[in-house]
Specification:
The protein is an all-alpha fold. It has one domain. It has 2 helices and no strands. The longest helix is centred in the middle third of the chain and has 86 residues. The N and C termini lie far apart (90 Å).
Length: 116
């Protein structure tokens, strides 16, 4: 009988080990599925980021072109205004519109520096 009991005990232990191994395999599959789900989420976020980055790059390029055009054209107009004012003996530094125009152009120049 002892031999029989030992055989049955060994079989029971082997069965427990096999069931434990199956539990580990199922657990590993669950972990792998979670990895796949999280990786897919990050991949989607990465794709969205790339699209947004491209759109922002395009907007930056348009902004820079427009800024350069406005700076160039405005500077010419300011120079003409300054020359005519000087002919009339007017101090342009006392004209608020002149000051505001210079400040606005400086803001555009600052934007251009940051986006170039």
């Amino acid at each position: 009988m002892n031999t029989e009991n030992r055989v049955f005990n060994k079989l029971a232990q082997a069965e427990k080990v096999e069931l434990s191994a199956q539990k580990i395999e199922l657990s590993n599959l669950s972990i792998l599925n979670n990895i796949t789900i999280e990786a897919n989420k990050l991949s989607i976020r990465g794709d969205d980021f790339k699209k947004n980055k491209r759109a922002l790059e395009e907007e930056k390029n348009i902004l820079n072109i427009n800024s350069k055009q406005i700076i160039s054209g405005s500077q010419k107009q300011i120079d003409i205004f300054k020359a005519k004012s000087k002919e009339l003996g007017i101090d342009v530094t006392k004209i608020s519109e002149y000051k505001n125009a210079l400040k606005s152009i400086q803001k555009i120049k600052d934007v251009l520096k940051e986006t170039s």
